[in-house]
TrEMBL record:
Organism of origin: Nostoc piscinale CENA21
Family label: Belongs to the UPF0162 family.
UniProt name for this protein: Protein SirB1 N-terminal domain-containing protein
Residue ranges of every copy of the Protein SirB1 N-terminal domain listed in the record: 65-216
InterPro entries per record: SirB1_N, TPR-like_helical_dom_sf
Superkingdom of source: Bacteria
Amino acid sequence: MSAKIAQSLFALASYLESQQNLLMNFSSARQYFYQEIQQPDEYINLAKAALYIAQEEYPNLDPEEYLNALDTMAQEVQERLPTPRYPLRLIQSLNQYLYDDLGFTGNSSNYYDPRNSFLNDVIDRRMGIPITLALVYLEIAHRIEFPMVGIGLPGHFLIRPDIPDMEIFVDAFNRGEVMFTEDCQERLTQMFQQPVNLKPEFLATVSNRQFLARMLTNLKYIYLKQQDLGKTLSAVERILLLFPTAMLEIRDRGLLYYQLGHYPQAVADLQNYLSKVPDAEDAVVIRRLLTELGKE
């Protein structure tokens, strides 16, 4: 065996051992989440991954119960689908079932309730925020073979049929309202209370990993607002499982470690951040913090 092959095998063995050690330190819910997102993006089961996120909050949660609930909803929708199955008629059937029959609604009165971000709560309470209501919608649409995709509009979340040249969007937060490109422009202007240029990337499809990261980012800021640093850290850690080189998340994890008194971990993350982004706007502040910790 050549030295080069032996070196490669050793590196692979070391990597596998490190991954196994990483898994051993996770809760069971975190392990399931990690295992789910190791698949190629298109094979990640969004509903399962979202339920594993919720399982950290609810350790006794049974994901199969809620996957079965989605299956049941899809079966009930299937029975009332029109013929022929034109996209707008399918959307009309989905909207009638979800909003009129089941009573799903956007939680405008308590938008930052963390329960709005947990799929089990959204299904139980029939209430959520744009991205979690979109997830319910997407999952049912997928089960009735009506492919839809997520659209990460700034400050909001939409979905659209995954059909070439069909530029219509569905707002799951607002009772499945059907929107066109000009409506998206108007929605942005309303949200930001000033004219906003609708860039093409605003209407780009999000990947499954981006979808999950956006859910976790919502939780991150909810918990930060509640000053629950432990749960904020938990959200950041899972974002980094999705995107290990996200430098702003590495910085935030370092700052959370610092606030929680985990100084060696804080130093490692903050030094890593500065090494990768030495000209960051907050570099002076981070260096000052490292000096305080005796490491700069």
